[in-house]
């Protein structure tokens, strides 16, 4: 238990006082690896293209949900909230962001001040845990998460809570990295990826999470690998930053070795 508390304290520090979103591997107040289109290999990636990749990952994830105008959505691990605001704007949704970090929620209020006013109640941020969601049963039409669940130790609890707060027929979608099914149990990931070694990032088999969703009562569970749209361009971007000689360059190596991949996992209640 003490080790788990220490790991969670490290996560809280990363997203709190250390302000992970301020690092140059991210941009536009987003914190994700991005969903990238084709980019010419003979030039540097622009800051605008980096930001666009992160916004696109939100679009690709939420597109797995049914989103008629006025749909009510919940984002798990909303961070600085610019993705939550994007979803509210572009999908004409009522969107609530949930995050455990008070510091991130303060940043979200500042970064999205104009949208909070302009969207007339269609955007809100709340403090709470994704394993004990502070909303009543059947509160939302859709629940989604973008690159946050790798920091959660109990994904079965996430699945149960997401199922509970969804209305019948509602959808769930999450984007993050997992181990591909069939990957070896023992890989050099902890030796190559600092956040895996520390326990800040937990890399589980994607099939285990799909099973958690099914056990929670979800149906139509789908697992879509999107690694070709993530790892190589993200590595190109990291190579342009001050992290060019860091362990951050090992993500691509791990992907190419078959030890990790990026997925969108979706399901229906």
UniProtKB/TrEMBL annotation:
GO terms for biological process: methylation. Pfam families: Methyltransf_11. Residues 74-172 form the Methyltransferase type domain. Signal peptide: none annotated. GO terms for molecular function: S-adenosylmethionine-dependent methyltransferase activity. Keywords: Methyltransferase, Transferase. This is Methyltransferase domain-containing protein. It comes from Glycomyces sambucus.
């Amino acid at each position: 238990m003490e080790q788990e508390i220490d790991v969670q304290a490290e996560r809280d520090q990363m997203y709190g006082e250390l302000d992970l979103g301020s690092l140059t591997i991210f941009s536009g107040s987003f914190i994700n690896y991005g969903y990238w289109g084709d980019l010419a290999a003979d030039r540097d990636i622009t800051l605008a293209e980096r930001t666009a990749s992160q916004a696109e990952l939100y679009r690709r994830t939420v597109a797995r949900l049914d989103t008629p105008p006025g749909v009510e959505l919940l984002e798990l691990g909303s961070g600085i909230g610019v993705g939550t605001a994007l979803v509210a704007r572009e999908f004409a949704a009522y969107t609530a962001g949930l995050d455990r970090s008070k510091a991130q929620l303060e940043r979200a209020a500042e970064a999205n001040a104009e949208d909070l006013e302009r969207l007339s109640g269609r955007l809100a941020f709340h403090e709470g845990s994704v394993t004990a969601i502070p909303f009543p049963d059947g509160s939302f039409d859709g629940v989604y998460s973008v690159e946050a669940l790798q920091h959660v130790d109990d994904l079965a609890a996430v699945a149960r809570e997401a199922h509970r707060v969804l209305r019948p027929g509602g959808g769930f979608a999450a984007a993050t990295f997992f181990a591909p099914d069939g990957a070896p149990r023992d890989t050099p990931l902890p030796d190559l990826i600092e956040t895996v070694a520390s326990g800040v990032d937990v890399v589980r088999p994607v099939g285990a999470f799909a099973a958690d969703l099914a056990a929670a009562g979800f149906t139509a569970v789908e697992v879509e690998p999107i690694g070709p749209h993530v790892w190589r361009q993200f590595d190109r971007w990291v190579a342009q930053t001050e992290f060019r000689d860091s362990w951050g360059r090992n993500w691509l190596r791990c992907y190419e070795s078959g030890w990790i991949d990026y997925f969108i996992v979706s399901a229906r209640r």
